[in-house]
Structures are given as structure tokens and as C-alpha cells.
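Name: TAXI family TRAP transporter solute-binding subunit
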Amino acid sequence: MVRARFVFPVVLLSIVAATGLAVQWWREQHQVYRLVIATGGAQGEYYAFGQALATVVAQHHPDIAINVLETEGSQQNIELLQQGQAQLAIIQSDTPPQPSARALAFLFPEVFHLIARSDANIRSFGDLRGKRVALMPEGSGSYKLFWALSQHYYLTAADFTALPMSPDAAYAALRQGEVDALSRVMALGNPALAELLRTSQSQLVPIDQVEALRLSLPYLEATQIPKGTYDGAVPIPAEDLPVVSVRAVLISHAELDPKLTRAITQTLFEFRNELVVLHPRTATIRLPEAGENLGLPLHPGAKAYYEQDRPVFWVEYAEPIGLLFSVGVLAASGLWQLRLWLDGRQKNRADRYNLEIVALMEQIQTANDLTELETIRYQLFEILRQVVVDLDKDRISPESFQSFTFPWETAITTLRHREMLLMNARSQPPVSPDLSSN
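Structure predicted for TAXI family TRAP transporter solute-binding subunit:
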């Protein structure tokens, strides 16, 4: 009787414990992690990338829901991360780090653009003295980099009129002659900037002295705005234009669950082609090289992904590997020739696509019918689909894909412009003949 009295509570406690463990397991299996990623303005590259990342992560990791937050830029993003209001953020590589920030990956390059009115007599950064300059909002990476560059040219706030404002307001001010120049850091080929350069009396200004700038700003990279990036017909710019750039970096809070950061990092590289379809510039994302400094410590989850293929068995099988290496040396020259052949084949394939784009651009210029333009639009997107497939199957290289995106986006922009011209012409009433003289 006494034994039965003790058995019942034990059985009851066991059932309760088993039920609790089952409930906990079920919750873990069905839990949805809701994250916030701080990006930038709604018309900018950071926001567009954040939306693409959220979409692809949700497709492959349904337990992760990412909310894309519009912000004023890098400085605000890292502050939101520090305050715990965001778990992910995109910042420029020149943004001062915070103790709570950890790096996940380098994203696409961000190029410093200086645009000046053609009648403002601004041919270099130093010519901004005495001018009115529209800057991006305070706290943005563009704002910070402008002032860092101005120090190199010995320009202070007293030497010109700095007017921080939103990108849309800055573009409008330049069109209306209310400012002489504007500066903004963004990925190449931005459609809004292309429209500004084509429809206003303005021009891009080169930024040279990159190696001298790197003495005090080591995060800067030398790059170029390729000829025709913003208009292939004119072209804009007329020649390859030397400028400087920084890298966009995807970061997270140090305390974010490593399994989440690993899943997000995995998405960047294993599902990159899906990201490219939504945001073509993600084609430039690359795995960090061994020992590469991203400007911040790596998050443990991202580090685990990068090191997942580290070959531990090399030590255990040192002798057979040595034999294989000896055999490999004998075949090295043949493999090298094969690689050269494959590289050449990839380049030839990419060149063929670019020639198709050029041919379609010529058709766009002469098209006089909206139906014809719609056919050309279908052909352009079919070419893009083929290129993405070829990138996925390593038929073309990421570098070739990056060079392809410029003429493709130029063709799409030219097609839209041609459509507008045809629609405007169609909407004009016919001119009646003047019969008053009869």
C-alpha cells in the first residue's frame, strides 16, 4: 500500500516531464525567428538587397522571417544594432565598429559618385571650394565618406556650403540649379542616377589620388565607372572614370544565435543565383579569403560556415596525399592548359551575350512600334535568364556576369526611354491643315 502511494506520484511526474519535453521540442521545431535588418533609403541598393535576402532566406529557411527596415544609412544602422532594435544591418566598410557588431560577409562594392552641374566649373574634388554641395543625410555612409575625402583636399565646412538632404531632394535641387554638386555612395548603374545624368545638365567628376588617399583611409579601393555605365548611347561617362569605392558589409549582433547567422551566410553563397535574379549586384559577393580582414570579428555562425569544409583528414592521410600530390605535379601543365581553355570559353560565351545586347540596342533606337519594343523586352529578359543559368553552371565567370549587367541595364533603360517617346508621340493630336488661305 505504501509502495503504491509512491508509485503514482512518480508516474505522474514522469508523464508531466515527458509532456513538457514534447511541448518544448514541438515549439523548437515550429518556432519562427523574427529578425530586423537595418538597410538604407527605400530607393537605395541596401534596401533592395535586404528585400532580396529576406525573400530567399524565407524560401529556404521558413523558420527565419526578416523584416527590412528603411533607415538613413550606415551610422544609424550600427546604432540600431547596438541598441538591439535590429539584429542584422548593412554598413559601409568605413563605418566605425561597435563592440556588439560581428561581420557575416562582404557584399557589393559601393562607389563614391560626385556629380556637378556642367556650368559650375567643377572638374575635381578641390573645385568644390565656394560651391553649394548637396550631401546625403547625416549619419549615412555617404555623408561620412564625403567629409573624410574633403580632409585630403584641405576643404573644411567653411570653404563651401554643405546641404544634407534626402537623395530625391538632392536630385531635384541639382536639376533646379539650387546646388552646384551632389555626392552619394552607391553601387554602379543606379537607375535614378542614370535618369538624373541623362535629363539634367550635369556630369560625373573623377576622384584620383587614390593611393595617397589610402594612406589615411586604408579601406578605400581604386575603381572605375566604366564608359557608358549610365547611358550607352551618349555615352555617360564618355570614358572610363577613375573613382574610389568602399565595400558594403553584412553584419549582425554578436549575441544573435549562431545557427541563424550560419543559415543566412549559407543563403548568400549556396543560393546566390536566386539572389542575383532579384538583385543582380549580388553576383559580386565572394567567399572571404583565408585571413582576410572584414573590418570586424566574424560572427561564430558565419565562421562555422566558412570553415565547414576545412579538411581535417589531411593530417591523418598525409602519406597517401603526398603520393597523390606527386602524381598531380606531373599533370599540372595539362590541367593548366585545360583551365586556360575553359576561361577562354567562358569569356567567349559572355562576349556573345554582350554582342546580342548591342544588337538589340540598335533595334531599340530604330523601333517605331510598341509591340516591337515589347518583343525586344522579352528577348532582353530571356538573355538575362540564360546568363543566370550559365552563371549557375559555371559557363561564365562572376566577373563576366558583372560586366554583362552594365550593357543589359543600359539596354533596359534605353528601351523604357524609347517607349515613353512613342507613347508621347501617340498621345499628341494630329495637326489640322490650315485652309484659311484657300
